[in-house]
């Protein structure tokens, strides 16, 4: 087992990609914290994962945009399990509008969840990682950390920003054995993406099938969606890689949509 007894905090893990990563980690023997907005959804996911084993999971309520909630959540994890070995800053949403129609409140909400969330969880975990002699921080970027698409000004700005944060954390954390990397998936069929298909269809005046074929998968080498399991595999690589040889990087898992 690659993560036996490692304490892993995964934000936004009651659903989608975060849940898939948490599932993979528990399968490798980890102690996983499912941190999500709703306590009941987090606890339900944790119970499912613990039942599957061989690791275990607990669920906590955490709004990653609240400094108080993040600090309380990380403190509760350390009180229970004594350490934090892996942070996956994954919680995220999508809001699409043309730039001239983008409500300022939506812009701020997007930047807050993606960037404040990454900053606050990192800030709360780093002191524990330093004290214990190391750790792995993984940010959920996107192909949109490197590429742009119409209607996604806030998302693209936030996902590009995560690359900068990850590089700074890699430099500050290096002497303490803290590694920091970004996963950049292509389109994965989660609730976040299912919601975008009709929205983009309406905004662009094209059919939903055209959104999938022309907007989402046309740049891939095989017109395939990236899967939850693909992303979880990369998250396992970054979590289990034990040296600073792999830090400050982004790994694109997108069926060749973006090649770096
Ligand atoms: P999802 O909607 O299935 O899951 C997102 C989870 O984040 C939900 O459980 C939600 O409750 C939680 N969340 C939202 N706001 C939160 C907050 N303020 N605090 C704590 N939790 C919060 O979406 P997903 O597709 O699994 O997305 C997860 C991450 O992957 C996001 O950062 C997203 O940008 C990124 N991503 C997704 C895709 C894709 O195609 N699905 C591609 C690239 C990157």
Notable traits:
49% helix, Rossmann fold, single chain, 8 helices, alpha/beta, binds nicotinamide-adenine-dinucleotide, 260 residues
Descriptive account of the structure:
- The chain has 260 residues and is α/β, with parallel strands linked by helices.
- The chain has helices at 16-27, 39-52, 67-81, 104-132, 153-173, 191-204, 208-216, 228-240; strands spanning 7-11, 31-36, 56-61, 86-89, 135-140, 178-185, 250-253.
- The protein has one domain (7-187, 226-253): Rossmann fold (3-Layer(aba) Sandwich).
- It contains eight helices and seven strands.
- Strand 1, helix 1 and strand 2 form a beta-alpha-beta unit.
- The longest helix has 29 residues, at 104-132.
- The two termini are 31 Å apart.
- 46% of the residues are buried.
- The mean pLDDT is 97.
- The structure holds nicotinamide-adenine-dinucleotide.
- Nicotinamide-adenine-dinucleotide binds at residues 11-12, 14-18, 36-37, 62-65, 90-93, 113, 140, 142, 185, 187-188, 190-193.
Order of helices and strands: EHEHEHEHEHEHHHE
Could you state the CATH homologous superfamily?
NAD(P)-binding Rossmann-like Domain
Order of adjacent strands in the largest pleated sheet: 3-2-1-4-5-6-7
Shape: globular
Strand residue content: 15-25%
Average the pLDDT over all residues and give the rounded result: 97
Helical coverage, percent range = 40-55%
* CATH architecture level-2 label: 3-Layer(aba) Sandwich
* Sheet/helix structural class: alpha/beta
Total strands: the figure is: 7
Ligands and ions found: nicotinamide-adenine-dinucleotide
* CATH fold field value: Rossmann fold
Uncertain spans, ≥5 residues at pLDDT below 50?
A: none
- What radius of gyration results from the CA coordinates? 18 Å
* Name of the CATH first level: Alpha Beta
Structurally, the number of domains stands at 1
Cα distance, first to last residue? Answer: 31 Å
Strand count, sense and barrel status of the largest sheet are: 7 strands, parallel
């Amino acid at each position: 087992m690659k993560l036996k007894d490692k304490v892993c905090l995964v934000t936004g893990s009651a659903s989608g990609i975060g849940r898939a990563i948490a599932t993979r980690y528990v399968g490798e023997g980890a102690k996983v914290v499912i941190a999500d907005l709703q306590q009941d959804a987090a606890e339900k996911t944790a119970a499912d994962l613990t039942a599957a084993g061989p690791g275990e999971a607990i669920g906590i309520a955490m709004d990653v945009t609240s400094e108080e909630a993040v600090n309380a959540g990380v403190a509760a994890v350390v009180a229970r399990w004594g350490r934090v070995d892996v942070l996956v800053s994954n919680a995220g949403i999508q809001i699409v509008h043309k730039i001239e129609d983008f409500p300022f409140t939506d812009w701020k909400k997007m930047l807050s969840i993606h960037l404040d969330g990454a900053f606050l969880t990192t800030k709360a975990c780093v002191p524990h990682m330093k004290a214990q002699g190391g750790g792995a921080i993984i940010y959920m970027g996107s192909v949109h950390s490197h590429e742009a698409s119409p209607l996604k000004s806030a998302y693209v700005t936030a996902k590009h920003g995560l690359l900068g944060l990850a590089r700074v954390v890699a430099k500050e954390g290096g002497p303490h054995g803290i590694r920091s990397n970004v996963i950049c998936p292509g389109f994965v069929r989660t609730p976040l993406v299912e919601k975008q298909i009709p929205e983009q269809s309406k905004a662009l005046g094209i059919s939903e099938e055209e959104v999938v074929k022309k907007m989402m998968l046309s740049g891939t080498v095989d017109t395939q969606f990236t899967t939850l399991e693909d992303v979880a595999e990369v998250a396992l690589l970054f979590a289990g890689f034990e040296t600073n040889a792999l830090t400050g990087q982004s790994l694109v898992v997108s069926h060749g949509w973006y090649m770096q």
